[in-house]
Amino acid sequence: MTVSLRKLSIATGIATVCGIGAFADPLPPDATYRPLPTQPLSTVRAADEAQKPEVMQRQRQVLEQRYDLTDRPMDGVMMSGGRKAVQGGVRVRLPQGTSWDSLTAMTPSEIRDKGLLPQGFLPLPHVKQATGGQVFPDVQIDQIRNQEARNLRRFDVDFDLHDRFTPEFPPPIFLTTHPELGDVSRGQLLTIRNYYEVMNGIITPVQMEGLRLLLTPFPQEEFNQTEDRKVPEQSLGVTCLDCHSNFHTNAAFHLTPDLRPQAVRFRLDTVSLRGLFNQQIHGSKRSLRSVEDFTEFEQRTAYFNGDHVSATRKGAHLPDRPNHVAMMAQMQNIVDFPPAPKLDPSGRLDPTKATEQELAGERVFLGKGRCAECHVPQTAFMDNNMHDLKLERFFEPGRSENGFVTIPDGPIKTFTLRGIKDSPPYLHDGRLLTLADTVEFFNLVLGLKLTAEEKQALVAYMLAL
Amino acid sequence: MRRVVMVAAVAALAAWPAAAQVGNPATTAPSTPMPGTGESAAQVNAQDELFVRLATIGGMAEVEVAQMAAKRADSEQVKAFARHLAEHHGQANQRLAGLAKGLGLTPPTALDAEHKAMRDQLEGADDAAFERAYVRGQIAAHQKLATLLEWELGSGQNDGLKRFAADNLPVVLDHLEQARALATQLTGQMARNDGPPAERKAPPPRR
C-alpha cells in the first residue's frame, strides 16, 4: 500500500510537470513558423492590390518625414562607372528647434527623454513589414523582363527609394584577376542570357560555372510556383545577382532572416560583393565564417528568411558543397573594389595625389573621428568583427513605424568603406542616404564633436576610397 | 604557289628573334603537321585561322569607328585618341593582311554582323552622347582585343601571327588604359591610372 501510494504521487508529479507546457497556452503558433496560406492566390492578390496604394503612400510619408529627398548631386562627383552622380548634403531631417550642434551638446539620455533623435537615424522600415520579402528597383525589374522574360515586379509593393539614392546601374565589374582590363561589364547587366559572352576568355571554367549558378533563378519566398507568392504568374524564382547586380548592389531590400517575430525583423539593404575576398565574416548578424557557408545556406532558406521549412515547400535548392558551392564562391572571390588611385598599397592616402582636404579627412578618420578603430585602412577598411553602437541610448525601444517595431540593433558586422560612394544608401538597412548623413550619425552616436570643416573633410576623404 | 609564298614568308620571318612560346599540339586541328617544336613559321592551325579572321574584323572596325570619332568627337583629346587609334590599327591591319597573304589565308573584307551593329549604333548616337559612347565602346573593344591576342599567344601555332600578337598586346593594353583615362575625364569617375591622358607621355611607337 505504501509503495503504491508513493507510485501514485510520483505519477501525479510527472503529470503536473508535463502539464505546465500543455496548459499554459504559450505564444501563438505562428510566432516563429510561417503559417501555410489559407486563401487562394486570386483572393490574396485582389486584397494586396487594393492595399497597395495606401501601403506605398504610408512609406512615402515615412521617407518624407525622415529625409530631404531633393536632387542635390555633388558637383563633379560620379560613381565608378561614371553613370550616376553622387548625392550630397545631410538628408536626415532635424527635429524642430534643434541643430546638429545642439544635439551633440546633449547627453544620449537627454535626447532619449525628450524624443529628439532624428527619425532618419532610426532603423528604416520595409515597405510592408507584415509580408516583408525581396523588393527590387524598377531598373532591375525592367532589365530582367527584357533579357529573360522573368517577372520581378510584386503585386503588393513597389520599391520605395528614388533612383538618385541607389547605386548606378548596371554597376561596373572589376576583377582581381584582371586589373589591367578595368570594368569588364561592357556596360551590361550580367544575366543568364549574356554572361558567357561577356566573360568568355577572362574567367576560368570553374568561375564560369559558379557565375552560371549565381545567375540561375531558384524558388524564393515571394517568387515561386505555389500560391504563397507575390507575382501573378508561377515564377521561376530569383537569382543571387538579381540583388547583387553585377556583383555590386542595386539597393534591393529584404528583411533580416535572423529575428522573430516578423514585426521586429529589420530591413536589409543589399550589400555589395566587391572585396568579398578580404571579408572573413558574412551576414550582418550571423557572422557566418565563409562565403561558402553563406552561399550554400541562403539557397537552403529561399534567400534570407531564416526559414528552411517554408523554403522546402517552395522548392529547395541544395547546392553540392564541394562542387557548386565552391565554384560560386570562387567566382564571388575574384570581384574587386573599384580603383582608388589615391590610396597606397596599405590603404593610406598618397600625399602626392590627395588634396589637402582629403588628407585632413584622413587625419580625422584615423584620429578624432575614431572611424579607423573598426574601418581599418590596412584590412580593406574592415575589422572582420561585429560591433554594437548601442543606439538605444538615444531612443525608447518599442516604437512602431509603418508596422515595424524598433528594437535595439545589437551587434552588426563592420562593412567595408572601399568604393563607398558607389553604394548608397548606407548602414545595413539603408537608413542613411548620403555620406554626409553617415558623418552626422557617427558624430552623434560616438559623441565626437566634429567641426563643420572636419565633417566636410571626412566626406571628401570617403569619396577618395 | 602557296608553297612559294610560305617559303618567302619563312625567309622574312627567320630574321626575327624567336619569342613566342611553343603551342600545345593537343588542341590543334588533326590535320596540322607536327614538326619537332610544335611551332612553325609557315604552318597555321585552326586557331591561327580564326585569329586572322577575328583580328582582321576587329581591326577594320577599329579604324572605321576611329575615323568617325576623329570627325564627330567634341574634345580635342578624344579626337587625338581616335586619330592615334586609326593610325595604329591601320598599320596593324596592313601587317596582318600581309601575314595572312603570306600564309595563303583569305581574311574577310567586310565587318561581321556584330561589328556592323556596333558601328551603326555609334553612328546613330546623337552628338551629345557620341563621345562617351565611343570611349566606352573602345574600352570593351580593347578588352576583347587584348583577350584575343593573349589567346593567340597561347593557342596559335604560326610564329608570324604570334609575333604580331606579342607586338600588339602592349599597345592594345596602352590604348585600353588611355580609353579608361578618357572615360574618367568625361564622366568624372576615378580610374586606376595616375592622371588624365594629357598629363601622360605620348605612347611610345611600338611596331
Cα-atom radius of gyration of chain A = 24 Å
Strand order of the largest sheet of chain A: 1-2
Helices and strands of chain A, in order, run as: HHEEHHHEHHHEEHHHEHEEEEHH
What share of the residues of chain A lie within helices? 25-40%
Mean pLDDT of chain B: 81
Structural class designation of chain A: mainly alpha
Oligomer type: heterodimer
Unreliable parts of chain A = none
Kindly report how far apart the N and C termini of chain B lie: 29 Å
Helix content of chain B: 55-70%
Q: Segments of chain B where pLDDT lies below 50 for 5+ residues?
A: 1-21, 191-207
Task: Return Rg of chain B in Å.
Answer: 18 Å
Biggest sheet of chain A, in brief? Answer: 2 strands, antiparallel
The most extensive interface between chains reads: A-B, 25 and 25 residues
**How many beta-strand segments of chain A?**
10
Shape verdict of chain A: globular
The count of β-strands of chain B is 0
Explain what this protein looks like in three dimensions.
Chain A is mainly alpha-helical and 465 residues long. Chain A is 33% helix and 6% strand. In chain A, a hairpin with a 6-residue loop joins strand 1 (73-78) and strand 2 (85-87). In chain A, helix 7 (205-214) crosses helix 11, helix 9 crosses helix 11 and helix 12 crosses helix 14. With 207 residues, chain B is mainly α. Chain B contains 6 helices and no strands. In chain B, 40% of the residues are buried. Chain A binds chain B through residues 76-83, 179-184, 186-187, 201-202, 338-342, 353, 464, and chain B through 132, 136, 139-140, 143-144, 146-148, 151, 173, 176-177, 180, 183-184, 186-194.
Keywords:
heterodimer; A: mainly alpha; two-stranded antiparallel sheet; 14 helices; 10 strands; 33% helix; 6% strand; B: 207 residues; 66% helix; disordered N terminus
